Amino acid sequence: MQPKFTDNELIEQTLAGNQWAYADLVKRHQRFVFTLAMRFAKNREDAEEIAQDCFVKTHRSLSSFQGGSKFSTWLYSIVYTTAMSFLRKKRIDTDSIEDEGVYIQVENKPSAYDENDVERKSRSYHLNQAIAQLLPDDATIITLFYKGELSLEEIAQTMGIETNTVKVKLFRARQRLKERLERNLKHEAKELI
Amino acid sequence: MNSIEEKLWNYIDGNCTPEDQQAIARLIEHDDLYKRKYAELLSFNAEFANMELDEPSMAFTYNVMEQIRAEQAAKPLKAIVDQRIVRGIAAFFLVTISVLLLVALSTVNWSAGGAVRWEIPQIQVPDPSNPFMQGFLFFDLILGLYLFDAWLRRKKIAGSM
Questions:
Q1: A123 and A153 part of one domain
Q2: Residues with Cβ < 8 Å from B159, sequence gap 6 or more?
């Protein structure tokens, strides 16, 4: 179903003083912004804090949005910079997939399972687990590419890097995600045996 | 040179030149390794595209809007006042002063020259021995000491913070 208003129309309404329009804009983008924040924060409370902060910042500087690019690209660049400064501030442990600490954490999860467990451990569950084990930058690129429906140029704009760098980073991120997913599934299979 | 996977990902994303596109399509058709890898990457690609987005709490939008409302309420008056109004008032006073100055200058009799005498106005200083005057000065002194004391206290508190 087509949304009643486009993002730019909602921005115009917000700037004219209609706060419901901004609430609509938040509702429209909150899931993606929250998911992006989760790629950095790794826990829901911090991710909500980042996501809320992004929407407040966006509202504050809405009048400076020129409309030259998509609103989503502009919003995601705010999410990216906010999340990066959050990481710097909180000094969250940004474990890479090479860091065995993360792997151990996954391995130490209770191995006992019941019917619900089996259901929960679907491929989608494993995919989310694998993404959570990636570096924030890798997870962000994958999320922006597959769920943000952004082109390589738009991802470059969002992350403030060159398009060619995005291409290379996306390739590497996909490789790592694939390896991590295979490793997790192999481990799962062993656990079931 | 690009690895097989890199070439295939570029092919899947549609990021290669038409010539490369054709060459890779031929390889997928005739080369078993390419065919197998392509099928594998396609299945991963489909899986990645099916990733689910996380859902924030139910009160998320409400919390954002509340934060914005609180921020707007806390804005100092200086930030809320429209700068155009301030500039308008300033312009009004500037124009009024300029007009008054021009009118005053135009009415000056410039030919009078040195005939005009400038005198300091005579001020009648009240007699300090007057009891009313003494009371007034005493009140001023007390008020001055009170304000000085308040200023020193504020300075001391600011210094200790």
A1: yes
A2: none
Partner-chain contact B64 A56, CB within 8 Å: yes
- pLDDT, tens digit (0-9, with 9 covering 90-100), for A148-158: 888 899 999 88
Range of the domain at A104: 100-192
pLDDT per residue as tens digits for the range A54-93: 999 999 988 888 777 889 899 999 999 999 988 888 764 5
- State whether B51 and A19 contact (CB < 8 Å): no
Both A141 and A107 in one domain: the answer is yes
**Residues in chain B whose Cβ is within 8 Å of chain A:** 5-6, 9, 15, 44, 47-57, 60-61, 63-65, 67-69, 71
Considering the domain boundaries, does residue B25 fall inside one? yes
B71 contacts A128? CB cut-off 8 A: no
Rounded to whole angstroms, the Cα distance separating A84 from A159 reads: 10
Q: What is the chain A residue with the closest CA to B6?
A: A171
Cβ contacts of residue A96 below 8 Å, gap of 6+?
Answer: A135
Residue A95 lies in a domain: no
Contact across the interface for A147 and B51, Cβ inside 8 Å: yes
What does R_g of chain B's alpha carbons equal in angstroms?
42
Number of separate helices (H) and strands (E) present in chain B:
7, 0
Are the C-beta atoms of A86 and A46 separated by less than 8 Å?
Answer: yes
Whether residue A74 is found in the same domain as residue A105: no
Query: Is the CB of residue A136 less than 8 Å from the CB of residue A83?
Result: yes
CATH no. for residue A158?
1.10.10.10
Q: Interface pTM (ipTM) of the complex?
A: 0.74
Of A55, A124, A181, the CB nearest to B64: A55
